[in-house]
Amino acid sequence: MRNPEEDESSTPTEEVLGSAPLNALGLLISLLAVLVVFLPFAVNTSPLDAVTFRVPGNQGNWWHALVGAPFFLAFPLIWLRLRALFSNRLSTPTGRRILWIAIGLSVFGTILVELPFLLHLAGTSAWQRLSVLSLGLGIVIASAAVLYLRRRHIFRAPTRACLIGLNTAYLANAVLCLIVYSDAKGPISSRSGWLVTMGIVWPMLLEILWGFAQTSTPQPPRTEAV
Q: What are the TM regions of this chain, as residue ranges (predicted)?
């Protein structure tokens, strides 16, 4: 008989996040995302600097902390990729709960970051405000809507659902930062994080779409081993 504790401690044995080459590519992208945490994004300020309020002119505040924190989602992305490459157990229920809490907090923080733009308090141009609101919130709303509508199929692959959630939360904040700091002045070395982020958001977006495509077809229910 199947041990009931096995269902509680592991993901379905047939769940996969993709082939080894795709997971290796995903790991490379996640490593670049981790690098962004320490690279200057604009005005020689990295996401790590933002969350520790080390902003030029002592201007660090809650907004900078909230906009810098989602970049740290790169670390659980690496964790999932390493498990996909080297472990038979992709995730555990406890691990997934922790990930969803982090995703929820990140999305909530991004919504708070959007408030100054929504209230016309950010001092940005009209196109920047429209872009930030439409893309930042749009990514979250669209992804959440698809997750909800296809929940019966998507959550049969719970680790993939977590991966979609992590990429969505990361991407929503990253796109916001790319738009806000697109006009930042200074040499390339002072905004290298911006350039790296511009390169990794596209494969992240493709991965979200691919993840939805992989779960769009209903899967037959698992049969229990006897």
A: 20-42, 62-86, 98-118, 130-149, 161-181, 193-213
